[in-house]
Amino acid sequence: MAFLTAESVSATFECVNKGGNVAPGHPAFESAVQGPTQHITPHQGQITFSVTIPPPPTPSPKTECPNGNWKVHLLSLTFTNVVLHVDVLTKDLGTIDP
Question: Cβ(21)–Cβ(65) under 8 Å?
């Protein structure tokens, strides 16, 4: 299996009205995030996988924008201390008494 973790992810959003005018939004922060786990199946001696960490949920325009009819757009994402976890072989060896 393989997956990514990050100590934190910060996202910056902006509010846009139907006329294309922009009002600054508020950043959203989420800590200790983990992406979905992907199971790895070796094929002809190779493993191929693609892992991701999804962005935090988009805030509601009703609470973050001047008007609830505006749209919230994601501007940027910053992931801090990203770690790739790969476990390709796990074997229980039982009790070993040297």
Answer: no
Nearest residue to 25 (alpha-carbon basis) of 13, 37, 41: 13
- What does the alpha-carbon distance between residue 17 and residue 27 come to, in Å, rounded to a whole number? 18
pLDDT digits (tens, 9 = 90+) for 13-43: 889 999 988 876 565 656 678 888 888 887 8
15-23 own/partner pairs: CB under 8 Å, 24+ apart? 15/61, 15/64, 15/65, 15/66, 15/70, 15/71, 15/72, 15/73, 16/70, 16/71, 16/72, 16/73, 17/66, 17/67, 17/69, 17/70, 17/71, 18/69, 18/70, 23/65, 23/66, 23/70
Q: Convert the pLDDT of each residue in 63-72 to its tens digit.
A: 888 888 999 8
pTM beyond 0.85, yes or no: no
